[in-house]
Specification:
alpha/beta; Rossmann fold; 6-stranded mixed β-sheet; binds 6-O-phosphono-beta-D-fructofuranose
Length: about 525
Amino acid sequence: MSPIRMDAGGGLAVTTGVDVGPALETLLAEDIPARLAAADATLWGPDAAEEAAIRLGWLDTFERSRALLPVVTRLRADLAEAGIHRVVLAGMGGSSLAPEVICRTLDVPLTVLDTTDPEQITRALNDQLAETVVVVSSKSGGTVETESLRRAWVQAFTDSGVSSVGRHFVVVTDPGSPLEQLGTAMGAHVILADPDVGGRYSALTAFGLVPAALAGVDVEELIDEAAAFAETMAAAPPENPAVLLGAALASRPTVAITEDGTGIVGLGDWAEQLIAESTGKDGKGVLPVVVESPTAPGATAPGVLSVSVGGATSHAAAGSRLDQPDVSVNGPLGAQFLCWELATAYAGRLLAIDPFNQPNVAESKDNTKQILDSGVPSEEAVFVEGPVSGYGVEAANLPDAITEMLSSVGTDGYLTVMAYLDREDDARLAELRRLLAERIEAPVTFGWGPRFLHSTGQFHKGGRPTGVFVQITADSAEDLEVPGRPYGFAGLQAAQAAGDRQALRDRGRPLLWLRLTDRAEGIDRVLSAAKEDGS
Ligand SMILES: O=P(O)(O)OC[C@H]1O[C@](O)(CO)[C@@H](O)[C@@H]1O
């Protein structure tokens, strides 16, 4: 079939050679684009309507976000005058992924802390403290990772004797959240976000824009790009690329997202959360896999929709590295955010799920709380191979254990690596995804814990029940106190990993736990074992 291309205002185009005809016809016959543009909360069925009624603010939030521009400009100038120029963002999932992609794409430095790893946090705390502002971002104001980080930073500033601790904090939260009160009490600059927008749809609200603007991004451009794109949001094809992307997303069980090398960096991690948390529920959903390059293993396979993203409007003309993805989405970042949000909402309609709830995220959180009180349950290692101890599968050694997990992946199955480590210093472990994906046809995903708990974690527990899991944790050389709490970050991280193991095992999912007693040597051992076929 010859490719279909749809262009919107704002210079965004979606092109696909996949036959999405029936899905497209369904959406158009029921007038879904116009109804979604008009914020019709009934589109996902009666059970979803109540939540949808308070979650569709993202359709035009970017216009309300213009009011933030003078606020952040003044705040940035005040901070600069006080010699504060390094921006650290403490937040999880939707409260950190958008600023990260914005700053990576525009090459503006921003330190994102969406972790409980004591080594990563200690390193961030020990760097240019006096010149640092910490943006504490949490919609609910109650996320344990973010609150623990806030406490650690307050302690660090207090210990360093800076003259005004509150001046080193900007709080972004929903009106009325516990964090609003805390932020005010500590003398932070508090910025309230649009409450009618859920976390993963919040890229163009204060959550996405404030940290990026403080770091030095001209966020008005992003708003303008989204506004230009929105002009064709209710249009019929060929002027509505989001409807084409939504129809394509709902057409395959897995979407492999890659960059085409024409300018957008890291959108895959943001889209991964959007798609996984929005669709991975009720035993179904679209599994997002962020692949390293257009030619990486898993980028194309049966059942996989390959999608390339790029900044240029014509990927072919702009020298794309991907010859024929199933779908290409090309256009500026502000328009990309809105296009993917709309597409996910369309896919939700086609898959008959509620794209605005995350019913299974709480499970691992609840388990973590219990384990923090009672301690991590002890388990017997099935093998100890130097710096790597293995638990949970019958295998004599590490290569056999890995082979066993790969062969447990069935039809429609997938394998997930969940690494509770330092995603900066231990970054080379991410190569494991590629090494394992080379050995099986099925999708292989990789996530850093606890960050993935706020993204693909929903899919693992609520999506199609065919996942096979490899969890990797490490002992830390030193713990870091969570001030005012009876546990440290290492204890919290271990409890989060144990809580998620429990949630997955309670559902009968195969899970291999690898515990590294020495990080560097353990990572080397795991990577080399992944290359060995144990048979
Ligand atoms: O902004 P908050 O409330 O801290 O939540 C962070 C993330 O946690 C989740 O609520 C659930 O994982 C995400 O949807 C959200 O982006």
